[in-house]
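> example.struct
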């Protein structure tokens, strides 16, 4: 039996480096994706409680680390609150974290309690796609881990220790939290993928070493990595032309101005922000068809993206200076074809 790996302190000359890396990463992660980036704190806390390794808890310098993390967040977050007039908190946290957790947003989730219960297994199914091709080995990994837990010992070549417990705890926390969240999208569990990859690689490599299949493990790993990198570089440019936000941006690009305001009606794909914010400094305003006319009547350059079927109803007598850019594409968020028109007022 192999000696268990303890979550103990690292060497003094490495400790501060990893300590800073951990808490600074949590801060930067929050600025990029919000509170979900702080899940590693919960993972570490649960692991320490389960392992009762209080010495490790002291080495984390938790209070000082959290203060450092909050200070870094404040350096960007406070100016962002001021410049967005509080919308950074109201939209970024209130809408996209709190509201998304308690209710279905943009049709991504259950419309009834019965459907909510049915979708509790959603991520345990989609992981076989999001983690492909490694998901082929997940039944084997589950069987190995269950056998170890049931036997209460570490099998040769498949030793289970506190490192395994940490990885399993992190994966479980992410899956449980997003399973309970009302709004569901396949990519929400991506934070668990690195932990799951480490757990699978650890046991798969151990098995390969025993069966002398180490070269096969390396070949599969390198081939898969190269394949996914190639897909990431080649596929997006090829399929972008089928997405309406890209088409609208390409057609209207020459008419966009940095000081323009922009909005959308019944179309909320993130790609709208990705493309148009490269030319326009303002933030996207989400409207309904009742206030789209008021938005366009305000002085100053602006544009709004609306379903093509609403253009004549909302703007029956467009001024000659206004421009319209219609398009048809695939709305990946809704999984259907949509007809959209960008109505632009130059000044």
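> example.seq
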């Amino acid at each position: 039996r192999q000696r268990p790996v303890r979550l103990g302190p690292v060497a003094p000359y490495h400790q501060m480096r990893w300590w800073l890396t951990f808490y600074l990463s949590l801060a930067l992660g929050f600025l990029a994706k919000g509170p979900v980036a702080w899940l590693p704190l919960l993972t570490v806390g649960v692991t320490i409680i389960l392992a009762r390794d209080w010495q490790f808890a002291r080495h984390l310098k938790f209070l000082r680390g959290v203060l450092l993390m909050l200070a870094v967040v404040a350096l960007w977050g406070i100016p962002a609150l001021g410049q967005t007039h509080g919308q950074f908190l109201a939209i970024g946290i209130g809408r996209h974290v709190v509201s998304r957790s308690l209710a279905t947003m943009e049709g991504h989730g259950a419309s009834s309690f019965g459907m909510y219960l049915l979708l509790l297994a959603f991520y345990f199914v989609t992981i076989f796609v999001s983690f492909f091709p490694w998901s082929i080995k997940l039944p084997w990994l589950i069987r190995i881990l269950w056998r170890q837990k049931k036997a209460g010992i570490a099998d040769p070549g498949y030793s289970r220790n506190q490192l395994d417990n940490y990885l399993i705890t992190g994966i479980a926390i992410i899956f449980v939290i997003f399973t309970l969240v009302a709004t569901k999208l396949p990519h929400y569990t991506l934070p668990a993928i690195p932990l799951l990859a480490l757990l699978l690689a650890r046991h798969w490599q151990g098995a390969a070493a025993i069966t002398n299949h180490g070269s096969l493990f390396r070949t599969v790993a390198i081939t898969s990595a190269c394949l996914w990198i190639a897909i990431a570089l080649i596929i997006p440019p090829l399929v972008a032309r089928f997405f309406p936000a890209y088409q609208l941006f390409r057609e209207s690009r020459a008419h966009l101005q940095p000081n323009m305001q922009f909005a959308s009606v019944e179309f909320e794909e993130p790609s709208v922000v990705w493309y148009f914010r490269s030319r326009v400094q303002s933030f996207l305003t989400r409207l309904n068809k009742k206030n789209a006319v008021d938005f366009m009547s305000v002085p100053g350059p602006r544009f709004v993206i609306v379903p093509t079927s609403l253009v004549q109803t909302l703007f029956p007598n467009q001024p000659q200076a206004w421009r319209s850019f219609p398009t048809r594409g695939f709305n990946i968020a809704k999984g259907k074809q949509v007809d959209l028109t960008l109505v632009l007022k130059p000044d």
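> remarks
The longest helix spans residues 214-239.
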